[in-house]
Amino acid sequence: MPSIADNIHAFEEKIAGTGARLVAVTKTHPVPLLQEAYAAGSRLFGENRPQEMAEKAPQLPPDVEWHLIGHLQTNKVKIIAPFVHTVQSVDSLRLLQELDRQAARHGRVIRGLLQFHIAQEEAKTGLSLAEAEEILASTEFGALQHVRLTGVMGIATNTLDEAQVSQEFNQLRSFFDALKVKYFTDDTEFREISMGMSGDYALALAAGSTLIRVGSAIFGQRG
Ligand SMILES: *Cc1c(COP(=O)(O)O)cnc(C)c1O
């Protein structure tokens, strides 16, 4: 069986030259496995629950970038505000305002990605392009100083239909391009397109992903 380190090195090879980075999705896995990933070179970790992330973070070195990839309720923001690097699942102005408020209390800036609904499945959450634009054009958003949007994120439909998955990734890419031109032309930090997981990362890379979020293909199936 390949080790966690073997799997990470294999992914680093796959993304070499693409400009994309690997987010090791560590949700449900115990800290020793995260330490193994760290030792193999991983520095970006993705968790989907604030509480679990807050318990693990102090047990890893401080140069880990913690990415929250699951839905975040505003009342949970304070749990992760002292250390979270990027909230990839930003889906409302209210959440941005709370991130700003809590980041300010800690004298820091929290990065965020706007999560878009690109899948055909009802359950997958996220914004439409119109909803994202409403946020970006608002005076409330313009006033925020401790939260910084650095790109977009999306989850494709869980299907074997590769044409459909590719089409969804291309749509996310086109949302990114549209927002970049209209709201972030001079902002070099608005550059992330987070898409692709264990089952569809290759299609995501082909569509221009800059962050692939990989769990089971590194750590094995979650219990
Ligand atoms: C769990 C999760 C992943 C990783 O999924 P794998 O199929 O295990 O690679 C990626 N993105 C999000 C948002 C997740 O919740």
Descriptive overview:
- By secondary structure, the protein is an alpha/beta fold.
- It has one domain (4-219): Alpha-Beta Barrel (TIM Barrel).
- Helix content is 40%, strand content 18%.
- It contains ten helices and eight strands.
- It has helices spanning 4-15, 31-39, 50-56, 77-80, 93-105, 129-137, 139-142, 162-183, 201-206, 216-219, and strands at residues 21-25, 44-47, 65-68, 86-90, 110-116, 147-154, 192-194, 211-214.
- It has an eight-stranded parallel sheet with strand order 7-6-5-4-3-2-1-8.
- α8 (162-183) links the parallel β6 and β7 (192-194).
- The chain is globular and about 55 Å long.
- It starts with a helix and ends with a helix.
- 41% of the residues are buried.
- Residues 25, 27, 48, 69-70, 155, 197-199, 213-217 line the site of pyridoxal-5'-phosphate (PLP).
- The CATH architecture name reads Alpha-Beta Barrel
Given as residue ranges, the uncertain stretches (5+ residues, pLDDT < 50) are none
Content-based structural category = alpha/beta
What separation lies between the terminal Cα atoms? 18 Å
CATH topology: TIM Barrel
Largest sheet: 8 strands, parallel
Bound molecules: pyridoxal-5'-phosphate
CATH uppermost class? Alpha Beta
How many structural domains in the coordinates?
1
* Shape summary: globular
Number of helices: 10
Tell me what portion of residues adopts beta-strand conformation: 15-25%
CATH 4th-level superfamily:
Alanine racemase
GO molecular function: pyridoxal phosphate binding
Organism: Hymenobacter nivis
Pfam families: Ala_racemase_N
Protein name: Pyridoxal phosphate homeostasis protein
